[in-house]
Write a structure and sequence with these properties.
The complex is a heterodimer.
Chain A (H helix, E strand, L loop, with lengths): L4 E5 L8 E7 L3 H9 L8 E7 L6 E10 L10 E7 L2 H12 L4 E3 L4 H8 L5 H12 L3 H11 L2 H25 L9 H19 L3 H6 L1 E6 L6 H10 L3 E3 L4 E2 L4 E7 L2 E7 L9 H16 L2 E4 L12 E5 L14 E2 L8 H15 L10 H18 L4 H18 L5 H11 L5
Parallel strand pairs in A: 1-6, 7-11, 7-12, 12-13, 13-14
Antiparallel strand pairs in A: 1-2, 2-5, 3-4, 4-5, 8-10, 9-10, 10-11
Helix pairs in contact in A: 3-4, 4-5, 6-7, 6-13, 6-14, 7-12, 12-13
Chain B lengths: L3 E4 L3 H12 L4 E5 L13 E3 L3 H10 L4 H8 E7 L9 E6 L1 H14 L3 E4 L2 E7 L2 E7 L2 E4 L2 E4 L8 E4 L2 E4 L9 H9 L3 E9 L2 E3 L9 E3 L22 E5 L2 H9 L5 H4 L13 H7 L7 E6 L6 E5 L7 H8 L10 E3 L2 E8 L16 E3 L9 H20 L12 H12 L23 H12 L4 H14 L8 H27 L17 H10 L4 H5 L6 H16 L1
Parallel strand pairs in B: 1-2, 1-10, 2-6, 10-21
Antiparallel strand pairs in B: 3-5, 4-5, 7-8, 8-9, 11-12, 11-20, 13-20, 14-18, 14-19, 15-16, 16-17, 17-18
Helix pairs in contact in B: 1-10, 2-10, 2-12, 3-4, 6-9, 12-13
Classes of the chains: A alpha/beta, B alpha+beta.
Chain lengths: 425, 559
Amino acid sequence: MAADTIFALSSGRPPAAVSIIRISGPRAHEAAKSIAGSLPEPRMAAVRELRHPDSGELLDKALVLRFDGPASSTGEDIVEFQCHGGRAVVDALLRALASIEGLREARPGEFTRRAFENGRIDLTEAEGLADLIEAETEGQRKAALAIAEGTLRKQVGAWRDRLLELTARAERAIDYDEDDEAIDPSLLRACEGLAEELQLWLDRPRVETLKDGVRVVVAGPPNAGKSSLINALSGSDRAIVTDIPGTTRDHIEVPLSVAGLPILLTDTAGLRATEDPVERIGVARASMLTEAADVLVWLGDPQSAPQHPRLIRVHAKADLSGRPVPSGSTPVSSVTGAGLQQLLEQVEASARSLLPAADAITVNRRQASLLEDAAFAMRRAGAAGELAIAAEELRHARVAFDRLTGAAGVEDVLDALFSRFCLGK
Amino acid sequence: MFDVLVIGAGHAGCEAAAAAARRGARVGLLTFRAEDAGQMSCNPSIGGVGKGHLVRELDVFDGLMARAADRAAIHRRMLNRSKGAAVWGPRVQADRKLYRAAIADLLAENHVELVLAEATELVFSGHRVTGVNTNVGMLASPAVVIATGTFLDGRLFLGEQVLEGGRRGERASVALAQQVREIGLGQGRLKTGTPPRLDGRTIDWSRLEEQPSDDEAWTMSALEDHPSPPQLRCAITRTNATTHDIISRNFDRSPLFAGAIEGRGPRYCPSIEDKVKRFSDRDAHQIFLEPEGLDDVLVYPNGISTSLPEDVQLAFVRSIEGLERVEVARPGYAVEYEFVDPRRLNATLEVREIPGLFLAGQINGTTGYEEAAAQGLVAGLNASARALGLDDVRFDRRTSYIGVMVDDLILQGVTEPYRMMTARAEYRLSLRADNATTRLGEAALAADCLSVVRRNHITDHFERRSRETWAETPEGRADATYAPYVARQQREWEVVQRDSCVWLPPDLRYSQIPGLSTEMVERLTAARPETLDQAGRIPGITPAALSAVYVAANRRAAA
């Protein structure tokens, strides 16, 4: 059964200077020909008049690119129209394509899915592309790009090579060592060392933090000035509100971009013991949010601030005279705007420590859980009492790595074994 | 008229013949000379890590090797004692003459008929094999096992000399090799080697480190049927800088480096000149001095197989501690031989396109007595099934090393001589040398190839396992040690099972699947995997290729 031929606007929403419409599938060439009259040679571009296949009406004059499967980004035949980016032009072209039999508009991610299914990219690259498409800020884009270009795959490859070497050492001792000695302690230490290195990676922020934003919770007793502060922060020049704030029953979330970092600013109900059942729910939720906060901005008495690894103490209403600024607190006035700049800088610094460096590679939950699996197995290998069990744990770690990107058969292990050791008696 | 004819009476051939006979077939075993049956042409030892596991598995099916090894054992070592029960490797040094005598007795007990003749040609009727032409006439048989080892167009290399033959002083099967090539089975050439044999009386044993036999008595076979011969000692010595110097000065006289040998040798059992060349940083290589028999002066120096000229062999051997005044009784040599691509075989070791034709042993690209014998068992059991209309006997890689080997061979093929290693078994912790009866007892009973003694032993074994006291036995304790890992593997296996359920149509045209590189297409086409799981185990198959195959198979199923 042949796949459908799909098409979509693959550049941003019009209006724009140029829009790109992509068609992929077995009928891509035929369909594009019915619109453009003729197609250029594969991998070449040519200017063509685009006409409606039925009416012959001129829709646009555009650059047409042709790629032949399987040497294309999806592995199928592809045609790209680079047309004028006006809304009317794009809509007309998409309608014209939809009118052709056997063509349908692509579902989200369908081009990537086809690239994966046709073996053009592997799973980690596919995930990176998906993240890239969703990326909103510069940091998100770079992280996604790094994965799409296979950086994660390379890092995993480097780990896997080391794991294979450890495996080779264990296997050599089992299959070739005549000297029946106890387990080599340096092998066990090396297993633990690799596990620790993986753990360092796992302790890094996940890509989800990049996507969802760093949750900055503003908390404190009622009337401490939380809502005013949030309004002042989201109104300041340095912060850009990236979406319409969501107001829930008991807290407000304002997505911000601060110096290119995704921030989710959250206002909580005042924290205090209360008899009112409705308010109590709000307070409970606030405590939860405080716990879930990546960064906690505390507006109350510095002494009663909750324990938090990234706590910023704010001396609010700094414009009211006669109140000394406690040491360690940042004086801020939502009325005059004084101190907002410093506070944003502090938030930015805290958030940055949670986000991967712009050029760092981040892992998502699926990848993290497999790496965790591998790290755990290697730690147990390091603690194994006999070599056969250590080798089994290493095998288990290899399985996790295989599931991450590629398959390491027994032959890979043997290759590692034979290239490093002189074996046989 | 035979039910099964076996060509070649080496370790594969003898097991094949005996196994077929145990299932009730009338079996003829073709060999050049009667005394060749059960000959150990290389090192005088049976078993080891991985190999010992194979011998124990063979034994469950009443194979010959374990019992013959016990009857001939003059030195025993359980390797890997400290590394975990799963990888213990029982190994014995065997007296060559006693071993041959034991095999001859066991063949006779199994009513195998020796036919002293050279097989010159297979006889076909259509695509089916119907017999074998020999120098003494045509022998009819609906099932034929080829177990010719290195004799298929074998060539011996000794320095600048090249001789025809599979073993020193013996003929090669040139005519049969020609036909194997004509019917398109020939794949290429492989190489193996053997060291010079030393006169033990000229070795200075007093200067060498001794390797005593194990104190604890254990046997290869689960059935202790004969008293064990007296135990000897082995010794260990090593090469040194002078040895390496002599060898490297003569690299140009080695057929290996001069280009005369085209076959690929095993990476794990390299010749001494190979070791010196490839691992030039090592200043010494271990040598195990293994006596060939109780009343035999010959000693096998394990670790220095070579094809260097005789004078060089003598010079380098005499540079080794304890061997300063040694006499070389017979020089070492390299053997190059023809092998068949085992990917042409079914899991029963029957050639896919030629019903009735089975291949076992070194001809399939393996090395080692144990590997050969285990294939002999598989081919013999199934050749009799073909002849007598019995059920096939298939081995699973989850429950036996035999299964691991057959699966590796028929799926992955070989690029170098295939030797069993425990690293090849992903279910290694379940596949222990001490639980072969537990793993394979039921299959052996079902194959209906057992003596009464064995049948009783297996039934008793299962009865003992069901008792509470089982936990106190060594096997019971090992079961407990590995139970959590075995359970985890069980879960992994269930995932594999899901992949196994994705059947790949036999007529799936890999060249038509988008996204597959030419290399992937070639590998998949050659291996013709039956399931997605099998495809995943073909070497070099990338996950991307696998997903493309998966999608293609699903599209076919949906169409």
